[in-house]
Amino acid sequence: MRIISGKFKGRRIQASTKISARPTTDFAKEGLFNLLSNRIDFEDIRMLDLFAGTGSIGFEFISRDCLEVIAVEQNEKHGTFIRKVCQELKIDNLILHKADVFRFIPECHVKFDLIFADPPYDLERLSELPDIVFKYDLLSEDGLFILEHSRKQEFESHPFFLFHKKYGNVNFSFFSKSNPD
């Protein structure tokens, strides 16, 4: 995986073969960040990365000078990898929580400007994630929740759904509690 833009632009990060996470493809990540760069100022946001996996999305936000990234990952090997990359890149504003996302969310009392979730596509409770994020009021007033999922899921009927983008086999659904533009 590589970092697309920012202070670590072009940096390749080789994940260990012990990592079982499916990182967001570079193609999808580039499309997502091109879209986001027209909507948000990365330097002013606090971001929550749920199911952080390899940390790829969090590292991309840090590279673009995001204030802080809270990464939640339950798998110890993935967490070890994220900590190693933070050490190598001298990142001190990514805080890693080794936790189950569904237990972390109710206990979290911080508001985020952007929440990104990249759960395993076959996760049994994947469709509950938008409801849980909004139930526990984790987004700031104009905050954005982005859920990565397979083509099998559809969220257009969710009351906070904004729009959907597809990049290859990767689907992103966008949600916000405020009205779009």
Description:
The protein has about 180 residues and is of the alpha/beta class. The chain has a domain at about 45-125 and about 135-175: Rossmann fold (3-Layer(aba) Sandwich). Helix content is about 25%, strand content about 25%. It contains five helices and seven strands, in the order αβαβαβαβαβββ. It has a seven-stranded mixed sheet with strand order 3-2-1-4-5-7-6, sandwiched between helices. It starts with about 25 loop residues before the first helix and ends in a 6-residue tail after the last strand.
Query: What's the end-to-end separation, in Å?
Result: 33 Å
- Classify the fold: give the CATH topology of the domain at 45-125 and 134-175: Rossmann fold
Strand content: 15-25%
* Element-by-element helix/strand order: HEHEHEHEHEEE
Tell me the overall shape: globular
Number of helices: 5
Largest sheet: 7 strands, mixed
The class by helix and strand makeup works out as alpha/beta
* Fraction in helix: 25-40%
